[in-house]
Amino acid sequence: MRVKIILAAVAGVALLSGASLAGWNEGGGEQDEALKLKPDLENGLEVYEVCAACHLPEGWGKPDGTFPMLAGQHKNVIIKQLADIRALNRDNPTMYPFALPRSIGGAQSIADVSAYIAKLPMNPEPGYGDGKDLALGEKLYKENCVRCHGDNGQGIPEKYFPRIQAQHYKYLVRQFEWIRDGKRRNANPDMVKQISGFSDKDMRAVMDFVSRQKPPKEIVAPKGWENPDFE
Fold this sequence. Notes:
Layout: H1 2-16, H2 29-36, H3 41-55, H4 75-86, H5 96-99, H6 101-104, H7 107-118, H8 134-144, H9 146-149, H10 169-180, H11 189-195, H12 200-211
Helix pairs in contact: 2-4, 2-7, 3-7, 4-7, 8-12, 10-12
C-alpha cells in the first residue's frame, strides 16, 4: 500500500509539472537543464549521501545485482537516467522517493551528483557469471553491441550509451531481460530490436562476457579501497 501511495504521489507531481512519458532520448525538461549546468562536486557529495544507502559510499552497488555499480558511469548517462526516473519515463519504484526533488533537489543537484558519481573509481572485483559460455558471449557482443557500447563496453557518453564494462553480471542480466521483453520503457528501441531474438542462454553468455571487460586502469580503484569522503 505504501508503494502505491508513493507512486500515485509521484505521478501527480509529474502530471502537474507537464512531464510526459517520453521515449528513448527525446530530451527536454530537467535532462537538458542539468546538462547545461556547471557541477558543484561539494554539493554532489552531499546529494550522494542519499544514494549511498543503497549504492554504497564507493558507488559499487552489490554483486548480487540488487543495486548497480554507479562509479565511473558517464555523467551524461547518469543525468539522463535520473531525469527519466523523475519524469516517470523509467520504472523504478525503489528509487522514486529518493530521486524526487524533495529528497535531492532540482536540476542543479542532478548535475552535481552525476558529476560526483562519474569521478568515483570503479570496483576492481565486480560480480561475474559462471564463465561457461564466454566464447559465445564474445561472438554475440562483437556482432550486436560494439556500435553503441564500444569495443569493450566503454559506451559513448555524447550519445548517452552507458558504460557496461565491469558492471555486475546479475544486474546486467536483469536489465537486458527487461529491455528484450519490453519491460523497460526508456530503452533504446534500436537495442530492443537488435536483441529481440536472443535466447536466455545468449543473454547470459553476452552479459557474462561484458561483466569481465576491463575499464582503463586509471578509473579502477585498488582492492579494498574505501571512499575517503565518508570517513
